Amino acid sequence: xxxxxxxxxQLAAATLVAGxxxxxxxxxxxxxxxxxxxxxxxxxxxxxELKTLQMEIERLNAAGGxxxxxxxxxxxxxxxxxxxxxxxxxxxxxxxxVDLLIGGTTTGATMAMAPLVEKAGVPFISLAxxxxxxxxxxxxxxxxxxxxxxxxxxxxxxxxxxGITKVALLSETSGxxxxxRKETQVVAPRMGIELVADETYGPKDAxxxxxxxxxxxxxxxxxxxxxxxxxxxxxVSKNIAQLGLKQPQYQSHGVASDEYLxxxxxxxxxxxxxxxxxxxxxxLPASDPQKAVATAYAKxxxxxxxxxxxxxxxxxxxALALAVDAIKRAGGTDGAKVRAALEATKGQMGVTGLFxxxxxxxxxxxxxxxxMLEVKxxxxxxxx
Length: 384
Description:
The protein is of the alpha/beta class and 384 residues long.
């Protein structure tokens, strides 16, 4: 009798706990697949991306999921290697049977995954910056970060304001750096900029003084534009300081993160770069339409992880928000319907900017989503 009474009490307690959890609909879980660079040279991009996806999916599930269905994240770490990204994407599509993919921390990883999702007919939202991700438009591929072309345009516009027309380009040999170099070469003459030096470095290079010495010996260099991501650009900044080069230094949005400040240290002082509003969210005026979503994400990330958010986590936040919105409008996870809904996204404000997509634009951002920032006294400030 005592044993039976204890069992009934345990069952009642279990029922109370179950009652506190969301009551899921009969539909299967919505499976979000992700391949990110959690380790390797692009780890400071991939880590906040994963943390953001985990945080946001937990929040959504606690609120009842999407269309009454639980979200499940299936993720893999490509270590920054495109070959691994391809293999994990194949596993997500063929074995894990995911409904949608978010990821591709780097341009190289994304481009290795793209043919697979195109063949499988599964929506894919990339977190990579290269314009090649969405140009030419791929039916099933979308992206949330600004493109490398936009970064070059924003940087050159700021240079022109400062009277700078002769620039040395130093780009990374990764997919992002290669695409950025190509787009910079196209944008420069159109904007009245002459590239008087053009050097490259590897994403794992621990020293680039040889390339910078070549740049120092080129007459007339007025500024140095570094196009890369991960740890490499911080190495470049340190080497620039060590060599005593005094020209203004610009970076791309590939380092728009407090992690770059930590890695570069005092060598980052004076560096300018284009960035989403997240890095200066708290300083935005109340009238800024992006302030609410940016500060809400930043607060949630700080509260959960006790560290500052990064723009790369913001890309993941926006990718999941776009996916959830599309699934809701599609009324389910049918791939073709979700893809069409993504393509029809109109006026959705994200951490990265205002998204309005179309059949000819699978990113949906314009140049106004970029803010030009400068490092002053170890912090980010908006350039007027």
